[in-house]
Design a protein that fits this description.
554 residues; alpha+beta; YbaK protein; Rossmann fold; 3 domains; 9-stranded mixed beta sheet; 5-stranded mixed beta sheet; 26% helix; binds adenosine-5'-triphosphate; binds magnesium ion
Length: 554
Amino acid sequence: MWRVLQKISQIVREEMDATGAQECLLPQLQPAQLWRESGRWETYTKAEGIMFSLIDRRETELGLGPTHEEVITTIAKDMIRSYRQLPVNLYQIQSKFRDEIRPRFGLMRGREFIMKDAYSFHASEESLQETYEAMDQAYRKIISRCGLQYRAVQADSGAIGGSASQEFMILAEAGEDEVLYTEDGQYAANVEKAISLPPDAQKSPFTKGEKRETPETNTIEKLCKFLQCSPTTIVKNVLYQAVYDNGKTVLVLVNIRGDQDVNEVKLTNELVRLAPQYQATTLLALQVPDETAQAKWAAKPLPLGYIAPDLDDNYISSVPNIAPKFLRLVDKTAVDLKDFITGANESGYHQVGANWGQEFELPKIVVDLRTAMVGDRAVHDPNQTLQSARGIEAGHIFQLGIKYSQAMGATFTNEEGEEKPLIMGCYGVGVSRIAQAAVEQSYDKDGIIWPGAIAPYHAIVVIPNTNDSNQVEVAEKLYNELNKVGIETLLDDRDERAGVKFKDAELIGIPYRIVTGRSLKSGKVELVERSTKNSQEIAIDQVVETLKQLIKVE
Ligand code: ATP
Ligand code: MG
């Protein structure tokens, strides 16, 4: 695996160098001070809790680098004075540390993993755009050169921040991410970020506003069955509990159409945007409050399953650090509904034939909070429907803008002699994740099928019977000759049964296997291709030439 990682690193290095980026090495042990300057110490050590932190013998707080915006911005602040020094793009290939909530699948999500991270600095947005596009192209080349199928998708920027960002997804069933895309190739996005047109709402069967007894209808499904209505005629009210970084808890009531689901990434972004209203800077946690959570603030039992958009603020006890009013947000899908059905704030009852502006006041904050779904119509062309695929995020590029440079005072003097914050971009590739993703995309029941460019070895010479001196002699000769011409070759001369050796060669996925077996009698060896299992007999003196052709080593 180390050989695979080195090959991927080399491909990454070559493509980075080709863009004009400079390789460097940054410290993994980082002072908390820098993260306080950028305002991320709390988020990374508490909210996301992703950063390992420690206190040294001088009582100084330190973190193990999960990413390097703070470090690189500090270096830029020290070294860049003038627009004449710009643009600059620096990258490193190094181990990162992240205390992941769910580390799993080997190298896929480790708490220590290898990343290539690059950071660029610019005097103008246009210059950032140029480098961003060059990095986009470089990332496509990296993944193609690794021999993998991928899709570039619009992405959520998360805690890293900034405006535009794009992810590179290696397509594999085992992928943790869902990608939504259209056949015309015009749209692809991570489901966290995806937008689409929801199905049209049906007409409500109720035209008269009234409260109805609806026993045991605490789910949308049960309610639809009971009232013989479509979920598109319902306004669903979902309660969330948000905790901000200043310790303040806010109860959030989201109104959304009954057939739709809240996208918690979009909701989180909206809550971060609203943080200043609560004298906070970021969100620490978001959850649907369970009984224990409710016990901390609910003044009386909540009409769960029957909540209405006008759920009274007096359900919230006056407790320090709990906002006294619900934060009311309405998703776009619920805004245009007429004569809708919704809760009546009383267990076993619903309001039917309701309208905004009559029974209920429309919340002031209207946002897109819905989860786009496979089958939805695309925004750019309603004739296209969204398709779904599983992907493994291999890389992510961001246009950061001045988020870090402004917070940390990293400025330069522009052509007009004015002092301006540096405009930044950042770009990450999961080197070790790519190695594992390659396995997830390319395997069969017998094991790994390494794409040639990143295979640990190009070929393996297997000696079926190590007691046969002729077999050993030919194998060793081929092994030496192949390595000499640059075909990286492994020799299996273990004292094992032939079957065991064949199985192992398949398992570890070396692209070509050469067997010095029975065919030696006629001056030939067997050559087996791992991906197709096709086998052919070739003359011993043709082996090097044949493999050279197959592998195309210069
Ligand atoms: P994810 O959403 O999968 O956690 P991320 O958004 O946290 O990824 P970035 O911060 O953008 O990832 O890091 C850049 C790249 O580093 C990712 O695209 C991914 O390939 C890789 N990466 C991130 N976290 C891990 C991890 N825990 N183990 C292995 N590789 C990782
Ligand atoms: Mg992550």
